[in-house]
Design goal:
Glycerate kinase, domain 2, alpha/beta, Glycerate_kinase_RE-like, kinase, kinase activity, Glycerate_kinase, Glycerate kinase
C-alpha cells in the first residue's frame, strides 16, 4: 500500500514537514511495510517556503530585512541557481507570527521587508520569482514593498508617506520611475490562499484586518485608504485590479503583485503541487492523508486539503483529512473529493493542550487510519467474486 502524506502546517503547533513525519510514525506502527511518500505542502501561507525547499532542493538563504514594524530581522528565502528562481514567503519578513498579540497594528504595519527580499533575489540574478502570500501582519496593499523597490508614494505636500496602510489615505501621487529596472525582466507567480478582492465587505481590511489588530472603526479607515491607493494606481497606470480574486490576499499584496510586478495570481496549493510534481506522485498512490489546523466551509477558497482532494479525485485516489478542528460547514469538503475527515482531539481539551500534543495526536490518528485501510484491503482481497 502506497500512501502520500501531504499536510500543510498546523498553525502555532507544527510545520508541514514535522506534521508529515508524525503521520509517518503512526502509519509505520500499523504497517511497517507500507510505502510512504512524505510530501509536505503549503497554500502560500506560513510554512510554504519550507515545503518548496524540501521538494525542489533549492538553497535556503537568509537576509537581514525589516519586519512589519520596521525592526531589523533575519528572513529566509530560497534560491535555485540552475533555473534562476527565487522563492519568497511574505510571512518570513512581514508575518503575523513575528509579532506578539499586543504589537499587532494593521494601521501601521509594512511590507517593506518583502521588497528587501525581492531586491536580494534580484542581486542574485533572479529571472523568476515565486512569491507566497499569506500569514501577513500587514494591510498596506504592498506599499512598503514598492517603497523598498524604489517607488515614491507622496502626499499633497510632496513628502513621502510613512509606513502602513492608514497613511495611504493621504496619497496624492505615485512616482514609479525609480522602481528597480530589473523588475521588468522578472517573471512573477504569486501564490494566494484566498480569493477576496481588495475592498469592501469581503476585502482585505474587513475580512483580515481584525486578526491583525484593527478595531471596527479602523477597518473602515483602512478600507478607505486602500481605496485611495487603488484610485491613484488606476490613474497612474490606466488599469484597475481591485476586484481581481486574490487582490485582497495578505492585506492587499495580491493587488500590488498583479499591478506593479505583473504577477500571475494562482491558488497557492496549485502552484505548490506543480512544484513538487504532485500529480506524478499520485500515479503510485493508494491513499493520500492531508490536513491543517482547521477544515471548514471557507476551505474551498483555496486551502491545502481541498486542493489536494480535487487533484486526487481526478486520479481516483481517496483522501483523508486530519484537521486540528472541524469548523462550521466542513461537510462541503466531501463534494470536493475528501473521503473522510477527522478532528485530532481525542477528548475534551483546551487549545494550549491541543497545540502541545499536535504531533502525538497526528501520529495516533494516522495509525488508526492505516489500520482501517489495511483491514479494508484484506476484506476486499478475500471477498468472493459474484457468482462464486
Amino acid at each position: 500500500m502506497n500512501v502520500i502524506l501531504a499536510p500543510d502546517s498546523y498553525k502555532d503547533a507544527l510545520p508541514a514537514r514535522d506534521a508529515a513525519r508524525a503521520m509517518a510514525e503512526g502509519i509505520r506502527r500499523a504497517g511497517p511495510k507500507m510505502q510512504l511518500d512524505e510530501c509536505p505542502m503549503g497554500d502560500g501561507g506560513e510554512g510554504t517556503l519550507d515545503a518548496l525547499l524540501a521538494a525542489t532542493g533549492a538553497e535556503r538563504l537568509d537576509q537581514e530585512v525589516h519586519d512589519a514594524l520596521g525592526r531589523s530581522c533575519r528572513a529566509a528565502w530560497g534560491w535555485q541557481p540552475e533555473t534562476r528562481t527565487a522563492y519568497i514567503e511574505l510571512a518570513e519578513a512581514s508575518g503575523l507570527q513575528r509579532l506578539a498579540p499586543a504589537e499587532r497594528t494593521a494601521l501601521h504595519s509594512t511590507t517593506r521587508g518583502v521588497g528587501e527580499l525581492i531586491l536580494a533575489a534580484l542581486e542574485r540574478g533572479a529571472q523568476r520569482l515565486l512569491l507566497m502570500l499569506g500569514g501577513s501582519a500587514t494591510n498596506d496593499a504592498g506599499a512598503g514593498m514598492l517603497q523598498a523597490l524604489g517607488a515614491r508614494l507622496l502626499d499633497a505636500a510632496g513628502q513621502p508617506l510613512p509606513p502602513g496602510g492608514a497613511a495611504l489615505a493621504r496619497l496624492a501621487r505615485l512616482e514609479l520611475d525609480g522602481l528597480d529596472p530589473r523588475l521588468a525582466s522578472l517573471a512573477v507567480e504569486t501564490a494566494v490562499d484566498v480569493d477576496n478582492p481588495l475592498l469592501g465587505p469581503r476585502g482585505a481590511s474587513a475580512v483580515f484586518g481584525p486578526q491583525k489588530g484593527a478595531m471596527p472603526d479602523e477597518v473602515a479607515t483602512l478600507d478607505a485608504a486602500l481605496g485611495r491607493f487603488a484610485d491613484c494606481t488606476a490613474a497612474a497606470l490606466g488599469e484597475d485590479h481591485r476586484e481581481l480574486p486574490g487582490a485582497g490576499a495578505a492585506g492587499g499584496m495580491g493587488f500590488a503583485a498583479r499591478t506593479f510586478l505583473g504577477a500571475e495570481l494562482r491558488p497557492g496549493i496549485e502552484l505548490v503541487m506543480d512544484q513538487v510534481g504532485f500529480e506524478a506522485r499520485l500515479a503510485a498512490a493508494d491513499l493520500v492523508i492531508t490536513g491543517e489546523g482547521q477544515l471548514d466551509g471557507q476551505s474551498l477558497a483555496g486551502k491545502t486539503p481541498i486542493g489536494i482532494a480535487r487533484c486526487a479525485r481526478a486520479h481516483g485516489v481517496p483522501v483523508v483529512v486530519l484537521a486540528g478542528r472541524l469548523g462550521e460547514g466542513w461537510q462541503v469538503a466531501h463534494a470536493e473529493g475528501v473521503t473522510a475527515a477527522f478532528a485530532l482531539a481525542d477528548g475534551p481539551m483546551g487549545l494550549e493542550e491541543a497545540l502541545e500534543r499536535c504531533a502525538e495526536l497526528l501520529t495516533a490518528r494516522a495509525e488508526n487510519i492505516a489500520r482501517l485501510f489495511l483491514v479494508a484491503g484484506s476484506v476486499k482481497a478475500a471477498a468472493p467474486l459474484v457468482g462464486d
